[in-house]
Write a structure and sequence with these properties.
Elements: H1 7-25, E1 30-31, E2 36-37, E3 40-46, H2 56-68, E4 73-78, H3 80-86, H4 91-100, E5 108-113, E6 116-119, E7 143-152, E8 161-169, H5 173-188, H6 191-197, E9 201-202, E10 212-213, H7 215-234, E11 238-240, E12 245-247, H8 248-254, H9 256-260, E13 266-269, E14 272-276, H10 281-288, E15 300-309, E16 325-335, H11 340-355, E17 361-367, H12 377-393, E18 399-401, E19 411-417, E20 423-432, H13 434-438, E21 443-444, E22 450-451, E23 454-463, H14 464-474, E24 488-492, H15 498-510, E25 515-517, H16 524-533, E26 538-542, H17 544-548, E27 551-556, E28 560-566, H18 567-576
Parallel strand pairs: 11-15, 17-18, 24-25, 24-26
Antiparallel strand pairs: 1-3, 2-3, 3-8, 4-5, 5-6, 7-8, 9-10, 12-14, 13-14, 15-16, 16-23, 17-19, 19-20, 20-23, 21-22, 26-27, 27-28
The protein binds one RNA strand of 74 nucleotides through strand 7, strand 8, helix 6, strand 20 and strand 23.
Amino acid sequence: MAKQIKIDTVRHSLAHILAYAMQELYPGTKFGIGPAIENGFYYDFDLPSSISSENLPKIEKKMREIIKRNISFKKSKLSKSDFDRLFKNQSYKLELIKELTENSSLPVSIYKVGDFIDLCKGPHIKSTLQFHSGKAKEIIDAFKLTKIAGAYWKGDEKNPMLTRIYGIAFQTKRELQDYLHQQKEAEKRDHRKMGPKLDLFSFHEEAPGMPFWHHKGLLIFNMLVEHWRKIQSKYNYQEVKLPNILDVKLWKQSGHYEHYKDNMFFTIREKKKLALRPMDCPGTILLYKESPRSYKDLPMRIGELGIVFRNEKSGELHGLFRVQEITQDDAHIFVAKENIESEVTTLLKIVDEIYKPFSMKRKVYLSTRPDDAIGDKKTWEKAEKALKYALKKNNIKYGLKEKDGAFYGPKIDIHIDDSIGRTWQMGTIQLDFFMPERFNLEYVDNKGKKKRPVIIHRALMGSLERFIGILLEHYAGALPLWLSPVQVWVIPVGKRHEKYAKQITEKLIENRSRCALKDENETVSKKIREGEIQKIPYLLVIGDKEEKSNAVRIRERGKGDIGMMKLNKFLEKIQKK
RNA sequence: GCCGAUGUAGCUUAAUGGUAAAGCAAUGGUUUCGUAAAUCAUCGACGGCAGUUCGAUUCUGCCCAUCGGCUCCA
């Protein structure tokens, strides 16, 4: 009996116990579904009246009470007609069973837990008795209801919204505490809190989803841009800057208006309808069309640090991760069909170069044709094949994301894992056969024949805003030296050291360090504390000893006091980094 | 947009149907200090608009923003 039960089985069973508790506490509740998920479980309910998270302790108590009753989970089979009778008041279950039995006449499996019956194929624990003995006993204390949220029935926003209750569950109380602790840590590195605290950026009610970049934040922003530019020019990209507002007729031609207008901002000029661009491509296309192109011009790589505007639904905004004014490290490559693979190969190399300095693990996904795609299936297949081939040739392992492509073409998405194990979508490489068609793009091949190029849309960091948000959380605010907006603070011990401290500061600035003299009327301790909070990489304390030997005393972020060093040596040290 | 919650000073929090309290920050003094908060004083706030009420920061409604999710997404 002391045998370990599979945690997913436990989680799934807890979801049923939760539903049972809801049935007892809120008669008339209709039940959706309740699966095990990562770290826990949830169950969706259609409640007779709405509840809030204040009710969670009560529900949790009821669940423990049910567990104490030693209730068994009994599996049985029912014919569809018996099922329909038994569940006549459970419209969601009836809907599920209708779909399940559409292609089969087999009996359906149900589970009975005390007075609660649910459509379910299992597996489950045998009975809550298992929770009372041996190792499993801990589980009673290792679960917790965490939050209450709305969720559309079957994940479709056209369906009614159900009330979802989330819980977390582990094998041991210890694991639960570890998890809660980790959540707290993650909260501490929340970029939305860190940003204003480190004086990097802020948000205002007057401009939802549009960051105000402060000086220090913009320094980081510009450093990343510099990093991007270096790599771009190495690979023969031209950089351009194009308008943010363009005539709606262009967006109609590109297909964006039809597919994307709910996410676009519009404005009017002398009766002419204009749109803030939600993407950079149509502008770049106009640029391409300015003159006839030859095969010698291809691949034509046009990069733009484009600002695009996307009108997001209000509940979707999230700090820098989801903004409405987005800066993309964007580029469009006009390429001959036969050169797609080699170009994608180069791009994959560029991706690696971009991510190299950030110690993040990269994952690659291939996304295929979505349901609302434009263009014919055959072209899509060809494009998907080209991407697959390039990935294979470069020995890159990738995951498949069915139906997740852009409406104009399949794409390769770059995801990264951050330091606390979360995954983020960053860059994207998208093939596009349709925009060239719509805009009638051409080039002249080596036999003087007109041919149609392909466009590759690509962003490496994705959006600078999101990327900075991720970096802040990845490094918990302690950015690497080269990205730190302020790298060194010079702290004089007393008033008489200010002159020497000032000289050091000037010398450091001359050597292109971002450095500040902290000569405010405060104690050394206070400034050290402040410097630690501000995540300054190096704090230099300057007193009599240092002045006498033309040296600095160094406190390195995360390491503490690392001793005295000659000023020149210190300059060398940070220059190297 | 949908479900639920939140909104008090720059930040973190308190209290109240009848003058809104504190710590940090800021500002002005004193102190000139050796590795995570010296000291005294001063300044400073009820998200917005309506309604109920003699009186609303408190109760009600609407709006806005934010948070946790859903959907969507770079």
